[in-house]
Automatic annotation (TrEMBL):
<dbReference type="InterPro" id="IPR050766">
    <property type="entry name" value="Bact_Lucif_Oxidored"/>
</dbReference>
<protein>
    <submittedName>
        <fullName>Luciferase</fullName>
    </submittedName>
</protein>
<feature type="domain" description="Luciferase-like">
    <location>
        <begin position="31"/>
        <end position="318"/>
    </location>
</feature>
<dbReference type="GO" id="GO:0016705">
    <property type="term" value="F:oxidoreductase activity, acting on paired donors, with incorporation or reduction of molecular oxygen"/>
</dbReference>
<dbReference type="Pfam" id="PF00296">
    <property type="entry name" value="Bac_luciferase"/>
</dbReference>
<dbReference type="InterPro" id="IPR036661">
    <property type="entry name" value="Luciferase-like_sf"/>
</dbReference>
<dbReference type="GO" id="GO:0005829">
    <property type="term" value="C:cytosol"/>
</dbReference>
<dbReference type="InterPro" id="IPR022290">
    <property type="entry name" value="LLM_Atu2307-like"/>
</dbReference>
<dbReference type="GO" id="GO:0004497">
    <property type="term" value="F:monooxygenase activity"/>
</dbReference>
<keyword id="KW-0503">Monooxygenase</keyword>
<keyword id="KW-0560">Oxidoreductase</keyword>
<dbReference type="InterPro" id="IPR011251">
    <property type="entry name" value="Luciferase-like_dom"/>
</dbReference>
Length: 359
């Protein structure tokens, strides 16, 4: 089993290459948004294809807004658990701040049973805040909600009797939460953005991290990865893996990939930007994100593979999660992007990094 060979000294995890989707709602033939049910079934087909083609991981994100179809990723993953055979199944991310850690464990230990031990969780705050008012939570408690719920989840994941108390929810005293996992371990990551406090907190609990790089230059996150490794060493958790989540699209040539992807990427970024008060993204700025230094992995298989390998080596990462869906990008193009990522990008990344398959 091969190890990463970049600047990430102490990282001994095998290379893993996988996919992420949020169930982005594309448009139908008449130009109107597809029904969410249709999109969810498309996600199942995409995950099944990723499994058949030998990718290592398939992640489904949680959102509570009309441009994404998936609000209950564990339910989607349960469907995939019984229709796939080898691929690991997880989230990207589970919004822990607005969920109950005990129920999170129960749902994913159930998916773990259905999948014969292939389930995992990535918890985080999420990129959007719609879940807070939806579930009656105050944004004034934004920091405390995540901090305390992560602490409770860490106790539950031990699969032993525990007692816990905090300031947000009532205290709990319980035996091992049911159902337990067959292996006694449910792999759990923490999804982080760019804040040092987040990676230090994850290291304290001994959780691996997935760094979401969705803008700027990927190499700019090297200090964050280095901080995580130093914090892991301080807390006695050396050797934990680092993952990367970034968007992109693969096609036969660089020109075709950009032509297919750019309109959907621009539309999505401008929509989110208008909600958050940002200036509209220009086409030049979007293309800059697709450059070798940018955070969008769009191009031919060789272009994408070289960029993925370079990012993993700089950050010392052992997993790359390719967010292949974006905005209204149609299902057919997503399926072709998955095929090219699995059949051409993944082997090339392993060749460039001198690594074998994870499984």
């Amino acid at each position: 089993m091969s190890e990463t060979s970049g600047s990430g000294a102490g990282t001994t995890a095998p290379i893993e290459l996988g996919l992420d989707t949020f169930g982005d709602i594309a448009l139908g033939a008449d130009g109107s948004p597809l029904p969410a049910a249709t999109v969810i079934r498309e996600v199942l087909a995409e995950g099944q294809l990723a499994d058949r083609l030998g990718l290592d991981f398939f992640g489904v994100g949680e959102h509570h807004r009309p441009d994404y179809a998936v609000s209950a990723p564990d339910t989607v993953l349960a469907g995939l658990a019984t229709t796939t055979t080898r691929i690991r199944l997880g989230t990207s991310v589970t919004v822990l701040s607005s969920d109950d850690p005990i129920r999170v464990f129960q749902r994913f230990s159930t998916v773990d049973a259905l999948s014969n031990g292939r389930a995992e969780i990535t918890v985080g705050r999420g990129s959007f805040i719609e879940s807070f008012p939806l579930f009656g939570l105050s944004l004034d408690d934004y920091e405390a909600l995540f901090s305390e719920k992560l602490d409770l989840l860490a106790e539950v994941l031990k699969e032993e009797p525990f007692e816990w108390s905090g300031t947000i929810r009532p205290p709990v005293s319980a035996g091992p939460v049911m159902p337990p996992t067959e292996s006694g371990h449910l792999r759990t990551w923490v999804g982080v953005g760019g804040t040092p406090q987040s990676v230090v907190r994850a290291a304290q609990y001994g959780f691996p991290v997935v760094i979401a790089i969705i803008g700027g230059q990927s190499a700019a996150f090297e200090p964050l990865a280095d901080l995580y490794r130093r914090a892991c060493a301080q807390f006695g958790h050396e050797g934990l893996p680092i993952g990367v989540h970034s968007p992109g699209h693969v096609a036969a040539t660089d020109e075709q990939a950009v032509e297919e992807y750019l309109p959907h990427f621009l539309h999505q970024m401008r929509k989110i930007g208008s909600e958050r008060g940002w200036a509209p993204m220009s086409e030049a700025a979007a293309r800059a994100q697709m450059s070798p230094e940018g955070a969008v992995y769009c191009g031919s298989p060789d272009t994408v593979a070289r960029k993925v390998a370079a990012t993993m080596q700089v950050l010392g990462a052992s997993r790359f999660q390719f967010k292949y869906s974006n905005g209204h990008l149609p299902h057919g193009l997503r399926m072709e992007s998955i095929r090219l990522f699995a059949e051409e990008v993944a082997p090339r990344v392993r060749e460039l990094m001198g690594a074998g398959a994870a499984n």
